[in-house]
Specification:
Largest sheet: 9 strands, mixed
Helix content: 25-40%
Order of helices and strands: HEEEHEHEEEHEHEEHHEEEHHH
Shape: globular
Distance between the termini: 31 Å
Strand order of the largest sheet: 5-4-1-8-9-10-11-12-13
Strand content: 25-35%
Number of strands: 13
Length: about 350
């Protein structure tokens, strides 16, 4: 792929971009899980306690966490390799089966007898989430599991040309500080850009990555920053502090209903340039998994060296689209492309 910055000026540029998604190979490393749903109806209150009774109509298991990122990438046409540690348990077997059902490789997955497979159970009654129950282990993976994961990653990188690596952190124990530092070094050895969807626990370990995507809470908690989330100028100050501290090339802060703020170091003076992309008006059904979609699209655009304004625009569109659907779902490539065409048309109008 060319290292020249790509710009989207015509509808044909968008078509080529989406076609080029199909040529990319992405490695996703991080915490994986099963998103388990119980769908039903509610028409009475329990006589045992003042809680609604959900009459079950359907049970569904879906890929969650870093696995949902892999699923989004797959839906966008990219070849995806997922690397993680799960439990050697029944849910772990269910997880592997879910990967196979989606035609995703299991080659990067390590099953450990010392772990359990993270599962989030959501009870949906009358199309409203009423309860969530988490079954998980959040302690760091042990040294044997660390070495097995790193060896697996190195083996895959030696055999396959990976265009971008995504570190998807949910603070469930896979991305320990040691693992993060070594993965960044390994990626550097192979000259592969690294995109990060962080949680606050190991913020400081992500120094020097190519792309960093915190939300407002993570931006505030990760480095203990104090700012007004309602003020774009105040958010800019926090992002600049973060960017300078971590020495990151690109930071994209997701601002919920305010859209996204992206910043990039400009050459040759290393000043920081900001662009704020407002959110598009949508009927929001569920924000679950939107961050997974955003990092997926952003990483593909990063690998293709798309200019940062359009990277933010595409990611913002994708995150909004999945919020229109109930539950954790992957982005629809055709719908995203159609939305991008509309943006091009509006810019030319």
């Amino acid at each position: 792929m060319s290292k020249q910055i790509r710009h989207l000026n015509e509808a044909s540029d968008i078509t080529r971009l989406f076609d080029d998604f199909n040529k990319l190979k992405v490695m996703v490393i991080g915490d994986v899980m099963i998103d388990a749903y119980v769908f039903g109806t509610v028409d009475r209150i329990s006589p045992e306690a003042p809680v609604p009774v959900v009459a079950v109509k359907e049970r569904v298991n879906r890929l969650g966490g870093a696995a949902n990122v892999a699923l989004n990438l797959h839906a966008l046409g990219a070849t995806t390799v997922l690397a993680s540690v799960i439990g050697d348990d029944v849910k772990g077997s269910d997880f592997l089966e879910l990967l196979r059902n989606e035609n995703l490789t299991t080659d990067g997955i390590i099953s450990s007898p010392n772990r359990i497979t993270t599962t989030k159970f959501r009870v949906i009654g009358n199309k409203v989430q009423m309860l969530r129950v988490d079954e998980e282990m959040t302690s760091d993976i042990n040294e044997k599991e660390v070495q097995a994961l790193l060896h697996k990653v190195e083996s895959i990188l030696a055999d396959e040309k990976i265009d971008v690596i995504i570190l998807q952190d949910y603070n469930k124990g896979v991305l320990t500080e040691n693992v993060i530092l070594q993965l960044i070094q390994i990626a550097g050895n192979y000259h592969i850009p690294v995109a990060v969807d962080p949680k606050k626990k190991h913020f400081h370990a992500y120094s020097g990555v190519s792309f960093f995507k915190p939300n407002l809470k993570e931006l505030k908690d990760g480095l203990g920053l104090v700012f007004d989330p309602a003020s774009i100028s105040s958010v800019k100050g926090a992002v600049q502090t973060l960017q300078e501290f971590l020495k990151v090339d690109i930071v994209m802060a997701t601002l919920s209903e305010k859209g996204v703020l992206i910043s990039k170091k400009a050459n040759p003076d290393n000043s920081i340039q900001f662009t704020h992309i407002p959110a598009h008006i949508r009927a929001i059904a569920d924000v679950s998994g939107a961050g997974d979609t955003v990092i997926s699209v952003a990483a593909l655009c990063l690998a293709l060296n798309l200019d940062t304004d359009w990277l933010a625009e595409m990611s913002n569109l994708a995150g909004g689209l999945v919020c229109e659907q109930l539950g954790v779902v992957s982005v629809d490539k055709n719908k995203l492309q159609a939305e991008a065409f509309k943006v091009i048309a509006s810019k030319k109008a």
